[in-house]
Amino acid sequence: MGESAFQWAPGHWQNWREASNPYRRFKSERDRTLALQALQLRERDSVLEVGCGYGWVSKSLFEAAKIHWVGVDQSESMVRQLRVSLEVHRPTALVSEGGKLPFRSESFDKVLCTGVLMHIADDFSVLREMQRVLRPGGLLLCSLNSLWSPASWVEWLRTRFRGNYVHNYRRPAVYRRYLEGLGLRIQHVAGDGLFSTSVLRFGRFGFPPRRTFPILRFLDAWAVERFPELAHEVWFTAVKPSDQSRS
Fold it and tell me: How many CB atoms lie within 10 A of CB 181?
């Protein structure tokens, strides 16, 4: 995640996350919902958020329970904006790479990394680090962009020639095998949406058009429950077994 790239400036992502476009609003709110459903936060949980950005998902975590939260992001400007926007929660946010987390092994009850791994060249190193800092019995939540998504090839072409920009699309089975290889037990697989999560711009025009959102949202509610691995972004919830040997 290059600090120099405009994509990693907080203003860019805030405009994207909080846009008036119904598809982007749906995607943003869906991410918050999926995170809360998966984490099932309890008071005093120690939570690490890798790639916290300017705090869009983080804010919903603070509002759900009184947790001990730590966030890391490679972008200094993102961390600075998060500290300002979530000042009332007094967040502990650090500038750090996900592949070199500055924490002792088995430090956190829950670790999440959403909407980030697809933009990191060595995403597997981040998964290894998250498993390392997770306590036995703890829960890991991560997401990837699915190669099987109907929108994947369009998104890939749209971003293919951007400089300093990584946008990976992987088969969900690859992540499943890798997480299991780390000794984690897959608990649940969910998807953000099949039709309502990717918006393309052509000058003044957007696709899909706004007027089709209610129909596509209805189709999503049916399809994503049955075919989560076809979603644009696939979310894995995994547990580190309590009897796993300490590293």
Answer: 12
